[in-house]
Every structure is written in C-alpha cells, then in structure tokens.
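Q: Protein A?
A:
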Amino acid sequence: MNRIVFSWRATTAGLVAGLLLAANASADEACGLCAKEVVINSELASCFLDQYDQIAKTGNTAVVVDLSSCTSRGVVEPLPSPGKAQVAPDVQFIVSRTQLDCLKKKLETPGIVLDPSATIELDSCG
C-alpha cells in the first residue's frame, strides 16, 4: 500500500518557490502579496525610517518588511480615542519597491499623526 507523505521540507520548498515566483513577477504586474495599506504608530515608523536603507537593499520587486524587533515590551499603549476603534499596528508586511518608497515619503511628512496608530494608504503616492 503506497502512502503519500508530505514532508516539512517539501512543503517549505514549495512555499518558498511560490513566494519567489510572486516576488519575481514583472514590475508592471500588481504584487498579489503586497499590502494595500499599513497600520503603523510612531515607534514603528521611527524604526522603519532608521532601517530604511537596509530594508531597501533586500528584494527586487517585493520587499518583506519585518519590524517585530522594533516593538518595545513593558510600555503601556496609549488609550484609544473615545468612539474610535484602535487597530493594532502591522509589524510584518510585504510591499513593492514603489510602495516602500511611498511609505517612507508619507512617514517623513511634517506633522503626520501616528499615535495611537495611523493607516497609511500605499497606492496613493504620486
């Protein structure tokens, strides 16, 4: 009796191959895995801007942004505004090269309000 056994390595290799194919899609095509918006706060924004040059060196068309090392532990989060639901910031997301530059540009906008969190639209840069 033949059994089909899925190994962890084969599954992982398949997922990685799929992500690479998606990441290597032509620049004209929309990135199917890329975020349309990012929820971010001032702490993560500052960390993103500090790490921007390093992040920008990775990937060709799709860039994985991992800000999980930026979050501080033991700090009390600000209270949400009355009548406004608080959305948890995104610490990991995938963006295109254009969206990465757009996010940087928007986060550098003077007077931007990021706390308790702000939703940044990534397809609205021009």
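Q: Protein B?
A:
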Amino acid sequence: MDVTAIDAQAFVVEFPSPEGEKQYLCAAGDYVMRALGMSARTRIFRASPPPRKQGQGITFTLDETKKVGLGMLSSFSKNKGDGGISAGVARDNYCPRIPFFF
C-alpha cells in the first residue's frame, strides 16, 4: 500500500482495493515503524472521519488532539478507549502473515 506523508505527524494510506480497513491499519503501523523509525508503542490515531468513501484513503495522525474514532475497529493495550492503536499492534494484528518454508 502507498503511504504519503502530510507532515511530521500525519500521513495518508492511499486506497488500494476494497478489501477492508484492516489493511490500512497494517500499512499505518508498518509506516510508523519502518519509514519513520518509531517505536512499536507509538500510538496511531485516525484523522479522517469514518466511514471511508469508496476510492478514498485514510488519514492517520500521531497527534492525539487531531484524532477521530477508529470506527468499527477497537483500541488495544492499556490505553484502550483512547481512540488509537499502537503501531506494533496495528502491524502485527492486521498485516498478512507469510509462512516461511525451509
């Protein structure tokens, strides 16, 4: 999935396919950890209000003051209910697993 930075605190996960919003969380978590080099504990918040219209991406922010609810997806960890998700949980729970064969 393509991710476009808006500024140091916000980015858009572009529309890939109609497969569901879980893939957006996967891309957001992966972007925060790999591209931004931030900790798996970094909180990610949705900045564009749900529901997402067909063909649109989702804007995420690291700034809790600019958040909207994640929609149908719930929050995890000790901060449950803050409307966010950690980058590690987003990546680990929503990215597809690719088995390794030896």
